[in-house]
Amino acid sequence: MDPDIALWLMVIVLAVVIPILVVLLKGVLQAASSIPPKIDAIAGVAAAASKDLDAVVVLLTTQNYISQITGSVLNYGGSLNVALPDA
Amino acid sequence: MKIQVAIILLEVVLIILALAVYLIATIVHLFRINAGLDVVLASVDEIVAKTAPVNGVLDAINGTLVTARDALEGLHLKKGGPDAAGLVESLFPGEGANFLRRVGKSGKVVNVGTVYTRGVGILASLGRGAPVGAAHTKGPAVRDPKYSTTAASMLYPRPGGARSRPKSPVVGREPAHSPYEAALTPGERPRDPTGRAVEARPQDTSSGQINVEKQPEAAEPAAPAPAPARITSAKGTRPWEQAPPQRPPDTGSGGGAAPPAQPEADAPPAPPTSGRITTAKGTRPWER
Fold first, then answer.
1. Is B125 exposed, middle or buried, given 0-12, 13-18 or 19+ CB atoms closer than 10 A?
2. DSSP string covering B142-176, please?
3. How close, in Å, is residue B111 to chain A by CA atoms?
4. Beta bridge partners of residue B197, listed in sequence order
5. Residue B125: its chain A contacts at CB < 8 A?
6. Which of B14, B54, B62 to mutate to test the interface with A (most CBs of A within 10 A)?
7. How far is residue B229's CA from residue B232's CA, in Å, rounded to a whole number?
8. Is the pLDDT score of B262 beyond 50?
9. CB count, 10 Å around CB of A68?
10. How far, in Å, CA of B88 to CA of B65, rounded?
């Protein structure tokens, strides 16, 4: 093959590759640039959720109350067991 | 140098420039993403740290509630008997079968609420053993909306019917429930237990009252001289107490004529005073 023809073919191929490469790189850049806003939004929600979970400590108090209420209910059931006749 | 080579070199340079520009921009965005994820990760760590004890607390609460539920279901089964599942079914449709499964029983769940009203069913079940199944569950309720307790009492067979039960005694109408007990000391009450005045009531010798008029009548034939025993006042005999000796002898008493005549002979102090009565209470001591 004539060397001139080969050089011209290489010029054409490179001319075609350049826009394709640019389009692909532009897509990657757009994808990468769309992530940081979402990360910021997730960070805000996570901070708010972490703040809301401060009330979880109250569950310990709730557990104590439920234990007391259960004890009262069981005492009431014991009284009913004595007061009411069996079936 | 040929022109083809020069063009190739130019295109290669353009490719390198494009790669450099876009890749550098992408790297910058990736750094920003990394920084944002660090912030999110810190918040997530807080969430994990704060929710760590929730499982244990909720498990403890759930265990406590399950224990209480089991105890109350056992009590309900003990007191409700075979109708326990039906009572649960009447209150929470669909839970009767679950109740039976939890307590380890099996059988058909009869909705008690379709047979009785809620209160009657519970009371009958707890107190007497309700005959669940007296009516079909899909039929009309076996209860009278106007006389519900009567309808419930009719479910229990009794000789003579449910209406033959003896009524409760009324306090005060029967001697056993007299509001007045026997008096230890003789006396006179202004009213009797029925509310009537004592004066309006006929004389009753069994009441324990002192009857002054009847005693001499009963003792008149046998006691020849009742006058000394009838002096109950320090002022002497009363005019009406002296009247019998003044009357003509009573022949119809069966005691004969001699007993009435004997007081006339044995009572010298009384006759002379008959004309000296100046008061309704009789002669005075100094007049005697």
1. buried
2. SS-SSSHHHHHHTTS--TT-GGGSPPPPPTTTSGG
3. 18
4. B191
5. 87
6. B14
7. 8
8. no
9. 10
10. 18
Q: Which of residues 120-139 of B touch A (CB under 8 A)?
A: 125-127, 129
Domains of chain A, residue spans: 3-83
Encoded amino acid at B63, one letter: G
Interval A20-46: pLDDT, tens = 999 999 999 999 999 999 999 999 999
pLDDT range class, residue B86, cuts 50, 70, 90? confident
Whether residues B36 and A22 touch (CB distance < 8 A) is answered with no
Q: Residue B205's pLDDT is what?
A: 47
- Distance CA(B117)–CA(A73), nearest Å, equals 26
pLDDT of residue A69: 95
Q: With the CA atoms of B114, B119, B122 and B123 taken in that order, what torsion angle do they form, in degrees rounded to the nearest 10?
A: -130
Residue extents of the structural domains in chain B: 1-52, 57-157
Residue with the two structure tokens 């025993």: B229
**How many residue contacts between A and B have a Cβ separation below 8 Å?**
142
Q: Measured between alpha carbons, how far is A47 from B43 in angstroms, rounded to an integer?
A: 5
**Residue A62 contacts by C-beta under 8 Å, 6 or more apart in sequence?**
B57, B61
